[in-house]
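Just curious: can you write a single protein's sequence together with how it folds?
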Amino acid sequence: MDKQKQAIAYFISFCIEQYKEMNHISGSEAMEVFSRNGLLDYLEAHYEPLHTQSRQWILEEIDELIKERQKQ
């Protein structure tokens, strides 16, 4: 795995872990939320700007995306 792909994988793992902790859910539940809402692809596609943001900002962005996608 090249360094860029590895960095993205670590970033996505970080996001899942932080979301899990914030919502007091299991890792598998967090993964289901991310998969169901297309967040894995979103986080990978937008890695460059997102990984420079704060933990709190990223979690707010994730929550906002989930709310938007659940409306559809």
